Hints:
- By secondary structure, the chain is α/β, with parallel strands linked by helices.
- The protein has two domains: 27-214 and 336-438, Aminopeptidase (3-Layer(aba) Sandwich), CATH 3.40.630; 217-324, 2-Layer Sandwich (Alpha-Beta Plaits).
- The chain has helices at residues 2-17, 29-44, 46-61, 70-83, 140-156, 178-184, 242-260, 298-318, 342-356, 373-379, 412-444; strands at 86-91, 95-101, 107-113, 164-170, 193-204, 208-210, 213-216, 218-227, 231-232, 267-275, 282-283, 286-295, 325-326, 338-340, 361-363, 382-390.
- It contains eleven helices and 16 strands.
- The protein starts with a helix and ends with a helix.
- An eight-stranded mixed β-sheet has the order 1-2-4-3-5-16-6-15, with helices on both faces. The protein has a four-stranded antiparallel β-sheet with strand order 10-12-8-13, covered by helices on one side. A two-stranded antiparallel sheet has the order 7-14.
- α2 runs antiparallel to α11 (412-444).
- The longest helix has 33 residues, at 412-444.
- One zinc ion binds at residues 138, 140, 173, 198, 400.
Amino acid sequence: xxxxxxxxxIFTLCTYLATPTLSDSLLNKDELxxxxxxxxxxxKRTDLFDWMVKIRRTxxxxxxxxxxxxxxxxxxxxxxxxxxxxxxxxxxxxxxVGFIGTGKSPFVALRADMDALPMQEEVEWEHKSKIxxxxxxxxxxxxxxxxxGAARILQEQRDYLQGTVLLVFQPAEEGGGGAKxxxxxxxxxxxxxxxxxxxxxxxxxxxxxxxxGPIMAGSGFFEAxxxxxxxxxxxxxxxxxxxxxxxxxxxxxxxxxxxxxxPLDSQVVTVAKFKGGGAFNVIPDSVTIGGTFRAFSKxxxxxxxxxxxxxxxxxxxxxxxxxxxxxxxxNRPFYPVTVNNKALHEHFRDVAAQMLGNDKIxxxxxxxxxxxxxxxxxxxxxYFYLLGMVDETKGRFESGHNPxxxxxxxxLPYGAALHASLATTYLLEHQVKxxxxxxxxxxxx
Length: 445
Ligand SMILES: [Zn+2]
Ligand SMILES: [Zn+2]
């Protein structure tokens, strides 16, 4: 604990001796290195590591889907109770928001998602999912364990926190828009910045992958029932064939990206669902098609949405069919583009470089995948990064949503330490700035 005392002493000195000119980073490299290295050592401490592993395995054995994370939420609250951390619950059905620190500004949030996927685990191991058809195949069990690990570190260091850390345990990341619901609750209204991470089965353990600016696409889902008139397949003139109509619609939808979008502006329209007919000699009454669309700007996203409606309804009309397009945003809200804040990117790079080394920071190329962390990053400055977990000596690691997905638990301390370091140093830097600004104002008065 002592190492933070001298760091704090330096800040106090900085505050009173500060020149009116504010630099962007008020922590020097030695101070950052001290916090980052010590937090990683704390997170690797056997008792803390074993405790995180136990939590992760317990959650893994009992996976719960979006907005049904009741037992997971209970486990989190029990651990927060044991640590003496105040929290708000329920937030967005099962969500929990913990608070550590002064209870005053600045407020920095750390986020973990809690939900599992509706799929069967195929990995045979001691802590296999006990719930048939449900599995933590995206690492959210590890995310919860890492944020609780950070909570332990931060709670131990709470006297030195120069502001408040919010621990955001959110439901329903996998399509349910849990982040959006948490924002609507108002609990996060005062947040100044938020950090989130996702464990990565692509990158080596001890590395992080990140970038500033847009890193993941905005996305939406659509579905349309193409209604025709069923009948005998050998007498098509007495029918209105919805299968042929749907086929034409799908081909026409391909033109939206290939002919209407700027080739330098990445977009996707995919029809992934086509349901209709059940016999070789019957033309069905209707066909259901559905899919997803993605874009990297609000303008392109809005344009795609409008054109999807136009193409589906008008092409259906050409084929004498009726249809309406349903985006069902109540159950599947549109996800905004995930945009990483530039200043937080610099902050993240400083912390990660001191903890892991400059060569362990990998540049993230944007992808058409989505994250509902984007809702947070749209509401206030946000930063989302990937945490590597691949260790080739431990066999092959399948990517997320695979029934053979495994988590390398050795990555847990890195996540916990990064969470805790990012929050602590953010508060220290911004507290010093705020105090210095206050002082300047007073000086002027
Ligand atoms: Zn996922
Ligand atoms: Zn995930």
